[in-house]
Write a structure and sequence with these properties.
CATH superfamily: Spore Coat Polysaccharide Biosynthesis Protein SpsA, Chain A
Helix content: 25-40%
Oligomer: single chain
CATH architecture: Alpha-Beta Complex
Strand order of the largest sheet: 5-4-1-6-8-7-9
Mean pLDDT: 88
Number of domains: 1
CATH class: Alpha Beta
Low-confidence stretches: none
């Protein structure tokens, strides 16, 4: 079983309000991210803050389990630890993605899973490399779950990945990394990009 772990338990300090609930082309930002991940994994866990009624409402209809992140002030590592600790038995690997990256591509998630399955036994993690650097989604095999549970700070698992050397497979992706919605200006720019893409698809 491959689990998706969507990190949606942050504090949105720079946005000024809960950025995950902000509207992007008619859907909340987090709904875009959750739909993309849910369509590419066997089970989905969404890490949310303790007071998350609005966030859960935004994800109504998405088949997922919610995990409360009581360590939100600790940054990304707190969200990762909460999600990994809640994974059900039998999970072979977890694909981590960010709730504030709404344009993550489900096909890229599927490719990450395919690469891990093809190299099972020799690869402990699979990450993505875009034209402007490495990003999400990133897959971690179950053997790495204890290391993920020991993470601290707001760097996520970058140091862990760096320590794995050639045990990390890389999926090359054309184009830039999915944009983070960290500020209202970033959301406005992303909305323009989504609108342009929609017009191209319709033409």
């Amino acid at each position: 079983m491959i689990a998706g772990l969507l990190l949606a338990g942050g504090e949105s300090r720079r946005f000024g309000s809960n950025k995950l609930l902000a509207d992007l082309a008619g859907r909340p930002v987090v709904r875009w991210s959750a739909d993309a991940l849910a369509h590419a994994v066997d089970t989905l866990l969404v890490v949310v803050p303790p007071a998350s009624a609005s966030l859960r409402a935004a994800l109504d209809g998405v088949s997922s389990q919610y995990v409360e992140n009581v360590g939100a002030p600790e940054g990304m590592s707190g969200s990762i630890r909460a999600g990994i600790a809640a994974l059900p038995a039998g999970v072979e690997a977890a694909v981590i993605a960010l709730g504030d990256q709404p344009t993550i591509d489900p096909q890229v998630v599927r490719r990450v899973v395919e690469v891990w399955r093809a190299a099972r036994g020799t690869t402990r993690a699979v990450t993505t490399a875009y034209a402007d650097g490495r990003g999400h989604p990133t897959l971690f095999a179950a053997a790495l779950f204890p290391a993920l549970l020991a993470l601290e700070g707001d760097r996520g698992a970058r140091d862990l990945l760096a320590s794995l050397g050639n045990q990390v497979a890389v999926v090359d992706v054309d184009g830039a990394r999915p944009a983070d919605v960290d500020t209202p200006e970033a959301l406005e720019a992303l909305a323009r990009d989504v609108a342009r893409s929609s017009r191209v698809e319709e033409s």
